[in-house]
TrEMBL record:
<dbReference type="Pfam" id="PF03900">
    <property type="entry name" value="Porphobil_deamC"/>
</dbReference>
<keyword id="KW-0627">Porphyrin biosynthesis</keyword>
<dbReference type="Pfam" id="PF01379">
    <property type="entry name" value="Porphobil_deam"/>
</dbReference>
<dbReference type="InterPro" id="IPR036803">
    <property type="entry name" value="Porphobilinogen_deaminase_C_sf"/>
</dbReference>
<feature type="domain" description="Porphobilinogen deaminase N-terminal">
    <location>
        <begin position="4"/>
        <end position="188"/>
    </location>
</feature>
<keyword id="KW-0808">Transferase</keyword>
<dbReference type="InterPro" id="IPR022419">
    <property type="entry name" value="Porphobilin_deaminase_cofac_BS"/>
</dbReference>
<comment type="function">
    <text>Tetrapolymerization of the monopyrrole PBG into the hydroxymethylbilane pre-uroporphyrinogen in several discrete steps.</text>
</comment>
<dbReference type="InterPro" id="IPR000860">
    <property type="entry name" value="HemC"/>
</dbReference>
<comment type="similarity">
    <text>Belongs to the HMBS family.</text>
</comment>
<dbReference type="GO" id="GO:0004418">
    <property type="term" value="F:hydroxymethylbilane synthase activity"/>
</dbReference>
<dbReference type="InterPro" id="IPR022417">
    <property type="entry name" value="Porphobilin_deaminase_N"/>
</dbReference>
<dbReference type="InterPro" id="IPR022418">
    <property type="entry name" value="Porphobilinogen_deaminase_C"/>
</dbReference>
<feature type="domain" description="Porphobilinogen deaminase C-terminal">
    <location>
        <begin position="203"/>
        <end position="245"/>
    </location>
</feature>
<protein>
    <recommendedName>
        <fullName>Hydroxymethylbilane synthase</fullName>
        <ecNumber>2.5.1.61</ecNumber>
    </recommendedName>
</protein>
């Protein structure tokens, strides 16, 4: 029997995620490591740079499925492909690693995290910091920043200590955070990998992002959890923001529109 080829980025976290998917598959698997444009140039934030090379390999038949962090996937996938499976979601929340004293220097590369931190604590000095999880942790140890904001799921999957969770008020994680997304050609079935509740939550979160025409360049967070949905939309400096809740994706989208989220997102993109 031919081994199922799983395409993945080569970072420690990406490989850990791919191995987690492989462990759920009945039969032989092979991990195929692919370098993406995002790996080559981390200074640019377009999410397609993280998944484009994997999608190209999928369409070319070089791999059978592509394994992604769902939060890194753009709202529109390559034609003919779909998210065909999502294992059970890990912790979706962000955590603080380090000291948030008054005026603390906090490192993050995410516009959403910057917006939420400044909306919560305008005294913080939020600075851009890039690199994989271990690189960022090393930069904090070296004193480049006082604290980091990272995804709890990534730390857990790498066996690293998790800091203080950011779960209340303005803190809403990115759509798909904590979810591993398995992309393949439409019609592919991987029932042993798929967790239906996680898949439904991811679909709902991505629906809201897509309906608002948001992108990786806009500060937006969406979370479907325990039968409710929450969303955050804000300005990068935290000076203006919206937090809304809804029973499902259509209701949440309507509430966000009514609260002025579309206009706020346009202001961010202007």
């Amino acid at each position: 029997m031919t081994a199922l080829r799983l395409g993945t980025r080569g970072s420690a976290l990406a490989l850990a995620q791919a191995r987690a998917v492989a462990a759920l598959i009945d039969g032989e698997t092979e991990l195929v490591t692919i370098t993406t444009a995002g790996d080559v140039d981390r200074a640019r934030g377009d999410k397609s740079r993280w998944v484009g090379a994997l999608e190209a390999a999928l369409l070319a038949g070089e791999i059978d499925v592509a394994v992604h962090s769902a939060k890194d996937m753009p709202s529109e996938l390559a034609p003919g492909t779909a998210i065909v499976a999502t294992p059970r979601r890990a912790d979706p929340f962000d955590v603080v690693v380090g000291d948030l004293r008054e005026g603390a220097r906090v490192g993050t590369s995410a516009l959403r995290r910057r917006s939420q931190l400044l909306a919560w604590r305008p005294d913080l000095d939020v600075v851009e910091i890039r690199g994989n999880v271990d690189t960022r942790l090393a930069k904090r140890e070296a004193g480049e920043v006082d604290a980091l904001v990272l995804a709890a799921a990534g730390l857990q999957r790498l066996g690293r200590s998790v800091g203080s969770k950011l779960v209340d008020g303005v803190f809403v994680p990115a759509a798909g955070q904590g979810v591993i997304a398995v992309q393949a050609r439409e019609g592919t079935k991987l029932p042993s990998v798929d967790h239906p509740a996680t898949h439904a939550a991811l679909d709902a979160e991505r629906h809201v992002v897509r309906e608002l025409e948001a992108s990786c360049h806009t500060p937006i967070g969406v979370l479907a959890l325990e039968g409710r949905m929450r969303a955050f939309v804000g300005m990068p400096d935290g000076s203006s923001y919206i937090v809304e809740e809804g029973a499902d994706a259509p209701e949440l989208t309507r509430r966000l529109r009514d609260a002025g989220a579309v206009e706020l997102l346009r202001a961010v993109s202007a």
